[in-house]
Amino acid sequence: MEEERGATPSPELAQLLEASSEFASFPGLQNDASVKEFLDRYPLQVLLSALHSEIYVAGLEDSVVSSLDKIFSTKYGASFIPNLMSFLQAGLQATSETIKWLACRAVCHLMDMADDKGAALQIIIDHNIYPLLLNCLIDGNERTSAASLDAIKSIAQHPQGIAIIFPANAEDPVQLKNLAARSSSLARIRILALITKLYPVSNQVVKAIHDWNLPSLFETEINNGKDPLTSLSAMELLYELVESSNDATLPLRPTLLQLLIEIISNSSVNSIFRSRAALLGGRLLTSADAYTAIDQSVVARLLSGISGKLVELESQNNDEVEAALESLGLIGATNQGANLMLTSSQDAAKLVVEAAFDRHHRGKQQAALLALGSICGADRSEDKIILSEKAEGCLKHLIYTTAANSSKLTPSGLLLSVLKQEPEVRLASYRVIAVLVTRQWCLAEVCSRQDIISIVTDQHIETTKHGMEARHDCCVAINRALLASSLLHDATAAVVAGKLQEAVKRGPYLAKKHVEAQPAVGTMERF
């Protein structure tokens, strides 16, 4: 749009500005009837022509574009888009970012609203729209790039669309790997963001991404020492991809884990970078299948690298320490990871247990308690909570040794001490106790301390919904473990069982006492 800021808008443009502003600002979604009524007053040709007016009218472009976006988001409005492909082509190449954004949104609406997705995709192919969307993705401003990403994702929802995004010809310039090779660092990150958003769309898309070895692009950027910000962005996007995937092993490569180990162990690297590397390593190993896809020696080296960093930062209570502990919890969440940690990499498990009961560093302690809960089985199904005999022996030994080296002397003393701390630590403690009591030795420890039973059965100790539910879940877990154990033959344990069962029946929330209706008697006021 050429801007003649000194010109006075015509009455028609002024009227259009008022009407489009009112239409665009309508709260919520427009329906077909309201869109038809608006288009009867201002046909599409009038709206599109206003975007090319040589007279600048403040706010006109924004209000018309917003109105068109609302129009195209309805079934009725989207039905006009196939006849506006020349506008879309021009819009995707416009100098105005607002118009480019609208054109990207129109493609998205075309795909979302089409009854015949195949026909809509054929229109996109016939007008060569996909390469223009890629240009908007890598060259547009942040808003335009995001709209282009959404449009490409909508194309990927259909098998024919997957063929557009991942063409069979390896030399095709729109191949994402080829595009990344000739792009700036910002454009490469946007391409990685596109891969991340496409990954959860379908198994066919995942297959195409791996057939073209696109996960290697993440590794290349993470390994780019020249641009730390780009490397960190690539790591964040890969973390998001793994979180959104049903199978974390798909992007898992031995070379990637080795790269993360090197980053974690490198003291010259920024701590934020090391923290993200540790968390990404942990996230990659949250799937049980990961341990069949990669050699356990690589996992052991990762655990050693994280443990070494924890030892180095032993007296500190910062984000990097908490990230390292969280990553150990992620690895220990699977049966395989917990077994490996407790049998082959005991240093990692020892650091978690010791930090869990060290009240001198509260943030670190809470992160360690959460990690310990995961290692003990809080995130596993009931049939997978108990580990191998050797791992269970190591876990018991670590907790008893930690207790003996403290002023609490016994595991029950340690557990009671964390239950008496502030609510955040107490919540993490409930989670640990709920899984530890599935072990007979810990159940006996818990039941031997009346103070522990008093806390977990006290309906008034927690004031938040989450806290009340965590306390009750812990109470239920102890009760279930006790009923299934041989401890019930003991008179003391039988009394404990009675308290637990009563607390379980009361439920997690504060129970209001039943108050009988009382007649109100008062002196009559006289005037």
Automatic annotation (TrEMBL):
GO annotation (BP), single: proteasome assembly
Membrane-crossing segments per the record: none
InterPro entries: ARM-like, ARM-type_fold, PSMD5
SUPFAM superfamilies membership: ARM repeat (SSF48371)
A cellular component term, taken from the record's GO annotations: cytosol
Alphabetized PANTHER family for the sequence: 26S PROTEASOME NON-ATPASE REGULATORY SUBUNIT 5, 26S PROTEASOME NON-ATPASE REGULATORY SUBUNIT 5-RELATED
Protein name: ARM repeat superfamily protein
Organism (species): Rhynchospora pubera
